[in-house]
Structure formats: C-alpha cells, structure tokens
Amino acid sequence: MAAAVDVPSCIQLLRSCGAAAGRQLHQLLLKSGHVPSSLPPTNAVLLMYARGSPLHSRDARFLFDEMPTRNCFSYNSLITALFKSGDLHGALHVFRCMPDRNTFSWNTVITGLTAAGDLDTARDLLDEMPVKDAVACNAVLHRYVRCGRVDEAFALLKRIGPQCNAEMTSSPWNDPFVLTTVVGACADRMKYDFGRQAHARMVVTKIEIDSVLGCALIDMYCKCGDLDSARRVHDGLKHVDEFSLSALVHGYTSCGQLHEALCLFDKVENPSIALWSSLIGGCVPAYHGDAAFVLFVRMLRSGMLPNSSNCASILNVCGFLGMLKPGQQTHGCALKSGAVNDLIAASALIHFYSKCSLWADACQAFSELRHHDTVVLNTMVTVYSNCGRTDEARRVFDMIPSKSVISWNSMIVGFSQNGQALDAMELFCEMHRLGLRLDKVAIASVLSASSSICSISFGEQIFGLAIALGLQSDHIVASSLIDLYCKCGNLANGCRIFDRIDDPDEVLWNSMLIGYASNGYGHEALELLKLMQSRGVKPSERTFVGVLSACCHSGLVEEGLRWFYRMKEDFCVSPSAEHYACVTDLLVRAGRLDEAVEFIENMPFKADAISWTSIIGGCKAQGNEALLHKVSKKLMETEISPHSSLYVQLSSTLAAQGDWAKSAEIRSMMRDRRISKNAGYSWIDRA
Fold first, then answer.
1. Name one GO cellular component term (predicted).
2. Which letter, b or e, does each residue of 222-252 get, where b requires 16 or more Cβ atoms within 10 Å of its Cβ?
3. 573: number of Cβ within 10 Å
C-alpha cells in the first residue's frame, strides 16, 4: 500500500528545487508508488531533471523509459534534456517518435537545433510545421541573420509568408520579436523595399509599434537614406525613449545632416553617454572628423567622462582622415578615463597609429594591452608586417586561438610584401589543406608571391584553383595573374587575360601597362595609355610609373621627360620618389650622367638609394671616375640611405677601378653606421 504523500506539494516543490532536493523527492515518490505510475508527478520529476545540469539527461532518459504512459509534456521534457546534453540526434529521434505533437514540441526542437547551429535541419522542420508559430520562425530567422545568411532569411520569409494568416494573433507577422528581426535584417542589407513592406504590414494589421520595434524601423530607414520616414516613425511613437532618439540622431549625423541631429540633441536637458555616443559616432561614416572632435570636446566640457565607444569613434575618424594631433589628444583622454583598457578602444587606437604609419606607437599600444581578441591580433599581424618584423607577425598569428580568413590573409600578405615568397606560398598551401575558405585576397597575394620569384608553374596552379572557385574574372586576381605572366616574360598570356576582362579598372590597366614596360615594349605601353584615356580611365601615380619605366627600358628619353612634366600639369599627379627614380634611370641609360645628378640634386626631397645606385651603375658602365668620386664623397659626408645595396655597389665599383683605399673606406663606413649587407641566396623553380 502506498505511503501517504502530499503529491501536489511535491509537484510544487519539484518546480523550484535543485538537483539534490529533487532526487530526494524522486525517491520519496518512487517509494510511495506515485512514480512512474502516475503521470503528473512523473512529469514533474522529468522536468526537474530536464531543467537541471546536462549531466542529468541520463536520469531523464531512464525515467522516461520506465513511464507506462506518456503525453506531449513528457516528450517535450526529454527533448529539452537531450538538447541540453548536446545529443541532437537523440532529441530529433524522440521528436520523430512522438505520436502527437503540439506547438510547444515543434518550438522546442526547432529552437534547440538553431541554438546548436544546425540551421538546415531547423529550416526543414519549420517547413514541415503545420501552423507556423512566431517562436520557431523568430529562432530560425534570428540565427540566419546572426550567421550572416541574410539572403536565406529573406527567402524563408517569402516562402512562409503566404502560409501565415496575418489576422491570427499567433501569426509570425504579428509578433514584435519576429518583425524586429526582419526589420533589423533589412537595415543590415539595405533591403529598403522589403523593409517598407514589413512596415506596411504592421500598419495594415494595426500592430502596436513599441520602442524596440520603433528603434529598429528608425535604424532601417536611416541606413537606407529615407530620413523623412525615420522621422515619421519617431514622431508617431507613443513613448520616445533614449534608444529611439539615439537611432534618429545617429541616422541624421551619418547621412551628413548634422544640423538636424543637433536640433534634436539640444532639446534633451541632460543627454546620456549613449546619446553622446550616437551623435559623435554618426560623424564617422560621414567623415566629419573636425565636427566629431568638436563634439567630443563639448562632451568633456559638460562634465561627461568618455567611454570606449566615444574614444573608438574619434580614433577611427582621426585615423581615416590622418588627423594625428586630435587622435593623440583622444589617446590621452582614453588613458585618463581608463577607456583605453577596453578592447574596442584599444583596437581603434592601434588602427589609428597604423593609419598614420606610426608603427612603433601601434606596437607600444599593443604591448600595454592586458587582453587580446582576434580583431586586435589580426591588426597586429598587419602592423608588424608593415614594420618588416615578420617574425613578430608570425608569433602573433600563432597566438590567435580561432583564426579567421582575415588572420590567414593578413599573414600571407605580410610574407608576400616582405619578400618572403616561399613562406607565403607554404602558408597558403597549409590554409588550402585545412579546407579553409579561400577568397580573392588569398589568391591574389599568393599569385603576387609567385611572381616575385618567377614561379610560373605554381602561379598557374593557383589560377586553376581560382577558376574552380569562380574567381578568374575578379579584377584583383586577374591583375595579379597579369603581373605574374609579365614578370616571367610571357607577355602574350598576360595580354590574353587582360583582353578577357569586360570592363578593366585602373589597376588592371596599370598592370598591363607595367607589363609592357618591364618587357621593353615602350611604344605599345604608350599606345595602351592612349587607349586607357579614350575609355575614360584617369591615369594615376602608378600609371605614370609604368609610363616612365616603359620609356626608360625602350630608350624614349624625350618622350619620358615630356610625360614626367605633363603628369603634374595636365593630370594633377604630383611626382613621387619613384617617378624621380625612373627619370634618373632614364637619363643614366641615355648616358646623360651630369644631367641625371643635377636632376637628383634639384629634387624637392632627399633622393633615395635607388636613384644614387642608378648613378653609380652609370659611372661604372661609362668609366666616369670623376663623377664616381664626387658621388663617393657626397655619400661619405651625408648619410643618404641606410640600404646596404648602395654602399656595396659603390665599394665594388671603386674596387673594380683599382681604388682599393676608397673601397675599404666605404666598407669601414658601413660598419660605423651599422649597415649590414644582406646575405645572398638563390632560388630555382624546379616545379
């Protein structure tokens, strides 16, 4: 005979007790015979195990198997327990075995699968669901958006939309959470028409727009550039809270309407830090650097301490616009307020110094960080690579726990740009072996590495991979491939790749033009320049490097000088050190050494090693000892360049002419200035 037990009280206790007390109640009900024979107390114990630690999923399973009778509640509780323990297959199997399923059953298994990341199965189940419920719809839609699969979210909406009766209270189209997710996705992808349709549906079905949904609508309209509709939504809200106002203020500012934003902002008596952040942060996409900094100073003077968001916004816009002094002042404020310890502000600080080419300051900011995330570490890979410190870059790369595609690309680009082609190629092969997604940046970078060592066989294998990935028509990939073929002397293949591109951009034109130049086809390069202009593509600095190089390699001296002076007068392109080096080489090759030296000495900036190396080579070729000694004397009096190639060539040339004393003096000067000669090495493409 069962002992007298207060079953309702036990059920009540099971709803709120922990695992230890729950086990004791389970034993009591087991001894009294109420479990598993009676459904209500057994379901209460089952729910207790399902609600607890994932370790109790086995207890839930054993109890479920002992139950003589079960209902939807029993199955739903076990499914919850199995999802908690990570047994997706078991949960789905139990769901399929259910004799009857209610809405909660469908919601439980769909939300469980989306939480576990199995979106495809969750979507298939949602399609099977007899009556689409808002909870299940929102779970799948929200996960699609979070995973970046926004287009699939819209496709799902279009598919389930006709199946939902908008007049039903339980319809997803009447649920504010679903609608907020939909409108948010429209904002992220600039789906203006779809967003307007969703808003129209809200108006037609008379859905009350609360502050969360209103904020989402305002954000969507602002991002899509419809500020009038955003203002109407704002003015139509029953209760305007800080979030709605912040969304509109940020929208006005980011669209360049700072005056409208300030009119709204100035009506608030004591604006919060969130409202200040919206006002200042909106200046970043509009590139209002000065306005952002003025507002930041105004906020400080009002007595409001900056947070990481404010500092990050200012540092980002200062970095983009090259505003060094305001950025450094913001760094000081961030140090005083402690905002610099936040990863968001710290990452923006490193980006700021990187944009300003202050690599040492960027490295210092990184060294002071207590914690790192993937974004910061990716940035530092690029920073160290730009400093030429590829060993440090590789060390940071190896520190990244979950490497993204950006992490791999940054390291491959770093190796390629620093002349470590083999390392770049090896890392790319490792990336490919791991089955990681290869994008145009990775493909173009490794093609560039291949071209630097003239490894045409490896480069063609990479291009085959690019074709398989559908990237053969991408301008960046095509440009790198043209560069590879031209550097390897296969100009015909380079031309074929160029001719297949329907609408080549400036980068592609420059690659082909430089390809002609490096292979000695000066007249063809100039003809290509004329064709480029006729197609409406404006020549850039890089274009004129190719033009001058083409004239240099083809002996077109007067033509080259004419283009050098025209580039500033007719095309408003200021000559850089590379342009001056090309003209210097042009004059040297033509035997006009004195004119070349005079050209260098009249440059608006100090000549680099390339220009002086060209002069020394010309002196050696023409036997002009007097000029060689003049250059030698100038080199010894002033530290022209820290590059070893210039000094080594000068020393070798002096030695070849029998002036061993001067040659030894140059070598001694290298030691005094701590200029070391790079060790020579060879590379043979055996593939």
1. mitochondrion
2. bbbebbebbbebbeebeeeeebbbbbbbbbb
3. 18
What are the start-end ranges of the H helices in 117-175?
A: 119-128, 134-146, 150-160
DSSP line for 594-623: HHHHHHHHTSSS---HHHHHHHHHHHHHHT
Pairwise CA distance, residues 195 & 184, whole Å: 9
Cis bond before residue 36 (omega within 30° of 0): yes
Amino acid present at 573: V
Distance of CA 659 to CAs 68, 190, 476, Å?
A: 107, 72, 50
pLDDT for res 480: 92
**What per-residue confidence (pLDDT) applies to 660?**
77
Q: Which residue type occupies 84?
A: K
Q: Supply 298's token pair.
A: 């105004």
- Asked if residue 515 lies in contact with residue 481, where contact means CB atoms within 8 angstroms, the answer is no
Structure-block tokens of residue 620: 């050696």
Q: Which of 275, 272, 250 is nearest to 261 (CA)?
A: 250
d(CA 605, CA 574): 13
Read off the pTM: 0.64
Query: Using H for helix, E for strand and C for coil, what is the string for 68-128?
Result: CCCCHHHHHHHHHHHHHCCCHHHHHHHHHHCCCCCHHHHHHHHHHHHHHCCHHHHHHHHHH
Cβ neighbours for 421, distance < 8 A, ≥ 6 positions apart: 415, 449, 450, 452, 453, 455
Q: How far apart are CA 668 and CA 674, in angstroms?
A: 10
Ranges 168-172, 218-222, 236-240, 464-468: which has the least confidence: 168-172
Task: Please report which confidence band the pLDDT of residue 282 belongs to, taking 50, 70 and 90 as the band edges.
Answer: confident
Q: What is the structure's pLDDT at 664? A: 76
Question: Count of CB atoms within 10 A of residue 345's CB?
Answer: 26
Distance CA 618, CA 475 (A): 38
* Structure letter (DSSP) for residue 679: P
Identify the CA nearest to 381 among candidates 365, 358, 400: 400
The DSSP call for residue 373 is: -
Q: Please, which residues have CB within 8 angstroms of residue 29's CB and are 6 or more apart in sequence? A: 5, 7, 10, 35, 41, 42, 45
Torsion angles phi and psi, residue 684, rounded to 5: -120, 125
